[in-house]
Amino acid sequence: MPATVIVGAQWGDEGKGKIVDLLAQESDLVCRYQGGPNAGHTIVVEGETYKIRAIPSGIVAGVASAIGAGCVVDPAVLIQELDDLEARGHRTDGLVFVSGNAHLIMPWHVALDGARERRLGKLQIGTTRRGIGPAYADKATRIGIRVQDLLDPKILREKVELAAGEKNVWLERVYGIDPFDVEEVVTQTLAHAERLAPYVADTSLLVDRALRDDRRVLFEGAQGTLLDLDHGTYPFVTSSSPIAAGAAVSFGIGPQRIDEVVGVSKAYVTRVGEGPFPSEIDGPAQDRVREIGGEFGTVTGRERRCGWLDLVALRFAVRVNGITSLALTKLDVLSEFDEIPLCVRYRLPDGSETEDFPAHQSDFHHCAPVFETLPGWREKLEGPALPAAAADYVAFVSEALTVPVTIVGTGAARDAVLALQP
Ligand code: IMP
């Protein structure tokens, strides 16, 4: 299909990087549409591990990669990533494109993110402290600095001076933090500008042309549906739109040009940061899932909270994204369990039960999971076919969601996947 969106169907960390890597090998252009270095995609190729935060993971497969207007770019992180890729033998020039309309994460955004979380104390969101929220806030209040500002030293200086002037007052007076030396930030940003200038592009035109030429374009979301600023579990969300429609917004194309939406879900659930999590596992089984699944954050190293698969939340993800098929990753992690519960409904505070994700936060915060338990398979998933109980598990998910499961992840390596017939 010419235009496919890969979207996280849970709270992020679904293993999108691996699915993108897989589908990127058949794509002409891979496009990252939101977020910034809060994301961390891990791809394992021939025993080599790549942890990518800014550039679409298609770059590892040598596919042209674009960062859209809906992203926020930390120039230092992007440069480091470009340098690392080049040092490992990957070409980046003529292959990496960054929208001039994307916003820059400046050093004060990172400082403010950390300071705000510290001030919130117990009420903190549990952000990745990479400056994401403050950068998007500046974009919305229209004092952000954009990637295209890097192309004009005079404008860049003016914008940095203006933004720093305001942010320094805020940092000092509200949070008691040392202000930034404006001249130092200007010098540093001008140096970044020199390195990044060749990569700045009109990514809307790039995608439009690619689609007109019948090229295969893959849009890669970061984070996940439940972290969406509008539709996720606010306020425990990120500051952008990971849902599939975000791809059209970020790349400036009409929504009707998207042909397929592949939802990526783990065979269980993880969440980092704070916030309600109905299917979170009680007791030692949670630690076992974390250990077996290696559930520690790529960006922050934090322990991920683990839960059994939540079909109510997944049904919601199918709805808000228009998911046309599902990739179920890390099914092998469940091979170690005799029985596998799945959350099929929520019991609401008034005693009623629902299969639909609650629209009101209080219902979600206070709902209890209703589980159905399926037998485990206790066998390695070596293919070509799944063990019967594993196939039943996948079929149960597919039927509950009325969406075909077309890919199953069976291990960390790049080729540890099974394609299933829809
Ligand atoms: P922020 O995006 O750093 O502002 O963090 C906001 C929320 O999104 C926090 O709960 C983070 O843990 C979560 N979050 C951000 N990026 C990711 C990710 O890539 N995977 C999982 N959670 C994430």
Tags for this model:
422 residues, alpha/beta, 10-stranded mixed sheet, 3-stranded antiparallel sheet, 12 helices, 19 strands, 20% strand, binds inosinic acid
What this model shows, in words?
This protein is an alpha/beta fold. The protein has helices at residues 16-24, 75-87, 107-120, 132-141, 153-175, 182-196, 203-212, 245-251, 284-293, 311-321, 361-366, 388-401; strands at residues 3-8, 29-32, 41-45, 48-52, 64-67, 72-73, 96-99, 103-104, 200-201, 217-220, 260-266, 269-271, 305-307, 325-329, 339-347, 353-354, 368-375, 405-409, 417-419. Helices cover 34% and strands 20% of the residues. The strands form five sheets. It has a ten-stranded mixed β-sheet, with helices on both faces. Strands 16-15-17 form a three-stranded antiparallel β-sheet. It has a two-stranded antiparallel ribbon with strand order 3-4. α3 crosses α4 (132-141), α3 (107-120) packs parallel to α5 (153-175) and α5 (153-175) packs across α6. It is globular and about 65 Å long. The mean pLDDT is 95. Inosinic acid binds at residues 11-13, 38-40, 125-128, 130, 132-133, 222-223, 227, 236, 238-239, 272-273. Residues 11-13, 38-40, 125-128, 130, 132-133, 222-223, 227, 236, 238-239, 272-273 line the site of inosinic acid.
